[in-house]
TrEMBL record:
Record-given protein name: Short chain enoyl-CoA hydratase /3-hydroxyacyl-CoA dehydrogenase
UniProt cross-references to InterPro entries, sorted A to Z: 3-OHacyl-CoA_DH_NAD-bd, 3HC_DH_C, 6-PGluconate_DH-like_C_sf, ClpP/crotonase-like_dom_sf, Enoyl-CoA_hyd/isom_CS, Enoyl-CoA_hydra/iso, NAD(P)-bd_dom_sf
Domain 3-hydroxyacyl-CoA dehydrogenase NAD binding: 299-474
PANTHER family associated with the record: 3-HYDROXYACYL-COA DEHYROGENASE, PEROXISOMAL BIFUNCTIONAL ENZYME
Residue intervals of the 3-hydroxyacyl-CoA dehydrogenase C-terminal domain: 483-574, 612-654
Upper lineage: Bacteria, Pseudomonadati, Pseudomonadota, Alphaproteobacteria, Rhodobacterales
Keywords, in A-Z order: Fatty acid metabolism, Isomerase, Lipid degradation, Lipid metabolism, Lyase, Multifunctional enzyme, NAD, Oxidoreductase, Peroxisome
Family as reported in the entry's similarity comment: In the N-terminal section; belongs to the enoyl-CoA hydratase/isomerase family. Belongs to the enoyl-CoA hydratase/isomerase family.
Pathway in which this enzyme or protein is active: Lipid metabolism; fatty acid beta-oxidation
Length: 703
């Protein structure tokens, strides 16, 4: 974020109304200088005899979106946001908040402390603190239930979701919604009100104490059941809302303050805040200094399999016109069926109206001819992972695309630079590595090879962001690892798991250990879901590392036709097409025979051993990617793992976890394991360097 301006708050006058105008781009976060500025301006306005009312407004795209999150780890500075809100509420002249954009967190709390609220028609508001592992700490838990009642207040705070100005007005949160000039309307409104109206004195929703307590009790039971009694922020939010009824407001604010501090001090909040900034750092590509994204309206996708269809759906959902090219009539029909099924499911589940589903499909053009490619601004090749096949298609795309079109390949492990060369316009060609299922997975790695132009890279980035997905830049150069960040880490993860499988653990035990760590699924559940044949084909197409221990269990399973969910049988058995499997006894037999053949006496791994080994493997692979320059920052690896693989967000990602353990302890644990399998456990040079220098991965992060 840019340096805060020196004077981020101005006091203006329009006749008998004083305007406190906040200007702290880009999002008017309420940092210390802003809080001091608002307090000083308020005092000045209140002591000015010519002022009868005060409007708090903001310049730029939005009313404040909250406290400045970066200050949470710093020493507190006066006035706190809570103190500032009390100052506003206690003002003896009416204070009106004029809201545009998104009033979030502390921004909405400031507005709730004002006596009246007026909002632009397209404004939105919410209290998203729970997404950062904390709660509204500037009076929000005390004022919101007073304004809209406990039920709706708990809904907003426990989900962190936003409501529109119109809905907020219906709830009683907003006094007036306007389509006219907000500032002028706020000044007129200020002139029309005579008295302050402190929110803390509003008892409308507190009068029926037993109904209030029944709501609180029901929510407490629900949170306990769904999230557990030790889910910190949700349970504390409920405690605070209960205090709003039971305690005088000053005491309620103290309860809230201490709950907020407990939450901020938690590991989970630190992880969630790290993840927030990591995502934003990942969006900063060095190419931005040299180029801007070109507009993309029409895209074409060549290959309508699972991946190509998923990309098409993601693009249609974001309003792009899509041409999808498949082979022959049967290919076209299969792709149409796949995409149609998605829209049918979405309509059936109420996510889309029938009209929306039908409208999206009107932007889809399915064809078995490549000649429509000439109109596309961006062409994505998404055919099977076979170099010759991809090279052939890419060279055709290169000859048909318009001169300034960007060409992308969805390859995940083939040589990106070599594929780019086949188009005859390597500079315009990049990698767009979507993760399955592409319609819903939030991550896309942008593959940048040596000769890719900044223009093409930035256009790819613009497209990914327009899909609402998180982009991470991967510097893909020949000869290094698997190319992309996600694949390299997944390989190390799976290798660590497979070694334990061969040496004594069971698939269910490994999966269970990783679920208890916070992954939604363990590695063997994921393998069953993705299809064992896909990884098999990849293994067979790649040269083997003669130094590495090769675990043949998965190959033997594929050779028996056990392909995972799609064949009803993999590491688990799926009875009657069910998604939840039961352990496959035949696999356990196969593993036992395999161990006996190799002369391996099975040994015990505790869940902790399993988690430790897998995390060590992930962190070491991450450190290697940093050394090779594939990943630019440790936080990019965290972002890939959270979005691409479901690493628990509250932990902030593996590199943040590694910092909590410290790189030197990680390096010494690796040195103990290294003799077992040097290719996996040999410490990456970056890790060794950090351990020697007593540094952390965070020291390598750049904004
Ligand atoms: C809170 O309020 C606690 C209080 O209850 C109690 C206090 C005592 N602080 O996302 P973008 C930066 S907790 C600091 O790319 P968009 C962001 O890092 C807070 N910085 O834009 C980025 O910087 P850079 C509750 C912030 O248009 C730049 O602004 N509020 C903050 O895609 C642009 O952000 C929230 O949790 C912040 N609060 O989305 C809201 N917010 O340019 C968090 C943003 O250097 N923010 N930045 O990369 C958001 O959800 C999105 O940023 C928002 C805009 C929707 C506002």
């Amino acid at each position: 974020m840019k340096q805060a301006p020196k004077h981020p708050v101005r006091l203006e006058r329009q006749g008998n109304v004083s305007l406190i105008v906040i200007e702290n781009p880009p999002v008017n976060a309420l940092g210390a200088a802003v809080r001091r500025g608002i307090a000083a301006a308020l005092n000045a306005a209140l002591s000015n005899d010519k002022t009868d009312a005060v409007v708090i407004a903001a310049n730029g795209r939005t009313f404040p979106v909250g406290a400045d999150i970066r200050e949470f780890d710093m020493a507190p500075q006066q006035p706190s946001l809570s103190q500032l809100c009390s100052l506003v509420e206690d003002a003896r002249k009416p204070v009106i908040a004029a809201i545009q954009g998104t009033a979030l967190g502390g921004g909405l709390e400031l507005a709730m402390a004002a006596h009246y609220r007026i909002a632009s028609k397209d404004a939105r508001m919410g209290l998203p603190e729970i997404k950062l592992g904390t709660l509204p700490g500037a009076g929000g838990t005390q004022r919101l239930p007073r304004l809209i009642g406990p039920e709706l207040a708990l809904d907003m705070m426990l989900t962190g979701s936003q409501v529109s100005a119109g809905i907020a007005a219906e709830m009683g949160l907003i006094d007036l919604v306007t389509s006219n000039d907000l500032r002028a309307e706020a000044v007129a409104f200020a002139r029309s009100v005579k008295e302050p109206r402190p929110t803390s004195q509003n008892r409308t929703h507190l009068s029926d104490g037993s109904a209030y307590m029944a709501t609180v009790a029901a929510r407490r039971a629900q949170v306990k059941m769904e999230l557990g009694a030790d889910a910190l922020a949700p349970n504390k939010i409920i405690d605070c809302v209960e205090s709003a009824l039971l305690l005088p407001v000053e005491t309620g604010l103290q309860v809230e303050r201490s709950a907020f501090e407990d939450c901020i001090a938690s590991r989970e909040s630190a992880g969630l805040r790290h993840a927030f900034f990591a995502e934003r750092a990942a969006a900063k590509f060095p190419e931005a200094a040299e180029a801007k994204p070109e507009p993309v309206d029409r895209i074409a996708i060549v290959g309508g399999g699972l991946m190509g269809s998923g990309i098409a759906i993601a693009a249609l959902q974001s309003g792009f016109a899509v041409t999808l090219v498949e082979q022959g009539e049967s290919g076209v029909n299969a792709a149409l069926e796949r995409i149609g099924a998605f829209y049918e499911r979405s309509v059936a589940k109420g996510r889309l109206s029938e009209a929306q589903g039908a409208a999206a499909l009107t932007h889809l053009q399915l064809t078995n001819k490549l000649d429509g490619l000439g109109e596309a601004d961006l062409i994505i090749e998404a055919v099977a992972e076979d170099f010759d096949l991809k090279a052939g298609i890419l060279s055709e795309i290169g000859s048909l695309a318009k001169p300034d079109a960007v060409i992308a390949t969805n390859t995940s492990y083939l040589d990106l630079a070599a594929l780019a060369a086949t188009t005859g316009r390597a500079a315009n060609t990049i990698g767009l590595h979507f993760f399955a299922p592409a319609q819903s997975n939030a991550l896309v790695e942008i593959g940048v090879h040596d000769t890719a132009s900044p223009q093409a890279v930035m256009t790819g980035l613009g497209f990914v962001r327009a899909l609402g997905k998180t982009a991470v830049r991967a510097r893909v150069h020949a000869g290094f690892g698997s190319g992309y960040i996600g694949n390299a880490i997944l390989e190390a993860y799976r290798h660590a798991a497979d070694l334990m499988l061969e040496d004594g653990a069971t698939p269910a035990q490994i999966d269970g250990a990783m679920r208890s760590f916070g992954f939604r699924l363990g590695p063997y559940q994921v393998a069953d879901m993705s299809g064992l044949d896909i990884a098999y084909a990849r293994r067979k197409s790649k040269p083997r590392d003669p130094e590495a221990r090769y675990v043949e269990i998965a190959d033997k399973m594929v050779e028996q036709g056990w392909l995972g969910q799609k064949s009803g049988r993999g590491y688990y058995i799926y009875i009657d097409g069910q998604r939840q499997g039961v352990p496959n006894g035949d696999v356990l037999k196969l593993i036992a025979e395999h161990r006996a053949k190799l002369g391996i006496t099975p040994r015990k791994f505790t869940d902790r051993d399993i988690r430790d080994r897998i995390l060590l493997a992930i962190v070491n692979a991450g450190a290697r990617l940093l050394g090779e320059g594939v990943a630019a920052r440790p936080s990019d690896i965290d972002t890939v793992m959270i979005h691409g693989f479901g690493y628990p967000r509250g932990r902030g990602g593996p590199m943040m976890d590694a910092d909590a353990t410290t790189p030197s302890i990680i390096a010494s644990r690796l040195s103990i394991l290294a003799p077992e399998e040097p290719t996996l456990w040999g410490a990456a040079p970056v890790l060794t360097m950090l351990a020697q220098e007593r540094q952390k991965f965070a020291d390598l992060n750049t904004a």
